[in-house]
Write a structure and sequence with these properties.
Length: about 110
């Protein structure tokens, strides 16, 4: 049975107090680690049923604050929406710094999405 939900975590909270900062520069997708270009912080917001980054909204079906530690929040997305989010991060210069070779090569390469 195929999973219908994907979980993506964003470092979007202030490291000094754990409060939502409205910016993100790192994300994880399972064992995959992603970083924004040059450690630049990008505007990141949440609303009822969505997250927003790079001027695009992505539907979420759940979230959990302080996932792992107080710097990170976890977002549950429909799988198709997670694929669009990952493609958007890739298009905007984010880099995969750790992950399975096939994903790493695709994300950091110049080819089309698999």
């Amino acid at each position: 049975m195929m999973k219908h939900t994907a979980y993506i975590d964003f470092a979007c909270n202030n490291p000094d107090n754990g409060l939502f900062s409205g910016k993100a520069m790192m994300a994880t997708y399972g064992d995959i680690e992603l970083e924004a270009p040059g450690w630049q912080s990008f505007s990141f917001s949440t609303g009822v049923g969505f997250i927003r980054i790079h001027r695009r909204n992505f539907k979420i079906v759940g979230s959990k604050d302080w996932f792992g530690n107080w710097c990170w929040n976890r977002y549950a997305l429909p799988r198709s929406e997670a694929k669009q989010l990952l493609a958007t991060l890739r298009k905007n210069g984010w880099r995969c710094t750790c992950g399975p070779v096939r994903f790493y090569d695709w994300f950091n390469g110049k080819g089309e999405a698999a």
